[in-house]
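Structure in, sequence out. Go:
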């Protein structure tokens, strides 16, 4: 499903006016009476997840015979640019699955319909509060939380036990010590971290009490002393005994997951979107062998991981009939029943507490992730926030390959941020 969140910048979108707002996003029949056909863009994994979203859409159509849904699966890696282009011109979907980092930027550009008080969001209180907050821009809600996620330490209990390790590490130093012990006593690599990806580096920043920017204070903090310390720790996770050297190839993510799933590496930092695939691995035929714990803390004694996930958003350029149908679909996809269905089929985390049924929580992966969701860090209300990961990831890649020292690499990122956020101080 994911990913790497280093999406391309939305700066151009923020300057584009709503040229196409007067026409239906789907280009289909816009009459207010009779059947309405809406277009829904789905960005889930086409093989593992999308078929279950299609099944939900069929259930929606059966319950709403006057609404037909044109279901279009759009690869996640290209969806942001395609949405940006379509909503700034023609051919935008009436309703779509929006990564949480895109929502405020699209809202600022005027592309999204506010959903407060609409059938799409009749009761915001049933959702995890931080997820509703992430869907807001300037006091209005522009997305209904569909799935949520965060990062955790996934580990192989059998290998940990073989190495004489009885509990998951709670600090980065403990993790490095465990990695060396796993290499020595279990004969496998102890830890593999996804390199050159800002999203996976966020727990290191949080562990030093900082972020890429201070949104409330309008200050760039990515090259602060705390951030430098965080990234130095991050870099050490590729060079310490028992840790895997930074893999910056295009297939790095697949290499990491293959090694973990087959018991060649004992621990990784990963999200719940991979739990279903992990269970298919040879090392986890017994699901109980998968350990899931909070990401380790930094030197401040604190930690946490970013809150990710997806909202369902409605295009502001659709006509009234299409908006009404789109709002119904948004409500259906985010209902307790649908959330439960998706959790059982896709192994994803529900966004509302009433979807964590006994059957859902019987999946140890979901239950373990639910336990650490409360420590996840919500994103600030900053439309440009998703675009910050691009430069950060690029310079992390240079840092871990010794093409740049830590401070110089982060200074370069800060310079890029100053162009993106001209009203922020450095």
């Amino acid at each position: 499903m994911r990913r790497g969140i280093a999406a391309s910048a939305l700066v151009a979108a923020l300057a584009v006016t709503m040229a196409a707002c007067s026409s239906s996003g789907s280009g289909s029949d816009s009459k207010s009476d009779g059947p309405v056909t809406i277009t829904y863009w789905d960005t889930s994994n086409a093989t593992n997840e999308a078929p279950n979203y299609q099944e939900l859409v069929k259930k929606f159509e059966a319950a709403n015979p006057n609404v037909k849904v044109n279901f279009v699966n759009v690869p996640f890696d290209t969806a942001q640019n395609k949405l940006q282009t379509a909503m700034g011109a023609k051919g935008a979907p009436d309703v779509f699955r929006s990564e949480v980092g895109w929502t405020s930027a699209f809202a600022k550009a005027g592309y999204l319909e506010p959903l407060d008080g609409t059938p799409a969001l009749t009761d915001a209180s049933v959702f995890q509060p931080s997820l509703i907050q992430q869907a807001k821009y300037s006091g209005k809600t522009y997305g209904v939380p569909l799935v949520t996620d965060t990062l955790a330490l996934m580990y192989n209990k059998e290998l940990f036990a073989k190495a004489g390790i009885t509990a998951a590490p709670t600090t980065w130093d403990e993790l490095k010590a465990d990695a060396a012990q796993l290499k020595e006593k279990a004969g496998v690599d102890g830890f593999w971290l996804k390199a050159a990806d800002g999203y996976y580096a966020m727990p290191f920043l949080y562990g030093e009490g900082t972020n890429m920017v201070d949104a409330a204070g309008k200050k760039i903090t990515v090259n602060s002393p705390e951030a430098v310390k965080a990234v130095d720790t991050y870099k050490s996770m590729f060079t310490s005994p028992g840790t895997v050297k930074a893999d910056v190839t295009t297939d790095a993510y697949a290499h990491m997951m293959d090694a973990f799933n087959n018991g060649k590496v004992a621990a990784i930092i990963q999200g719940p979107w991979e739990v279903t695939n992990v269970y298919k691995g040879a090392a986890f035929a017994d699901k109980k062998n998968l350990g899931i714990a909070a990401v380790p803390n930094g030197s401040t004694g604190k930690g946490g991981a970013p809150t990710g996930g997806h909202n369902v958003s409605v295009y502001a350029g659709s006509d009234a009939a299409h908006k009404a149908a789109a709002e119904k679909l948004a409500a259906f996809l985010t209902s307790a029943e649908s959330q439960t269905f998706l959790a059982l089929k896709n192994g994803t985390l529900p966004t509302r507490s009433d979807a964590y049924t006994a059957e859902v929580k019987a999946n140890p992966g979901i239950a373990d992730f639910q336990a650490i969701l409360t420590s996840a860090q919500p994103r600030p209300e900053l439309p440009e926030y998703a675009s910050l990961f691009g430069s950060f990831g690029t310079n992390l890649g240079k840092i871990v390959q010794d093409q740049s020292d830590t401070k110089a690499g982060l200074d370069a990122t800060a310079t890029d941020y100053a162009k993106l956020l001209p009203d922020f101080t450095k």
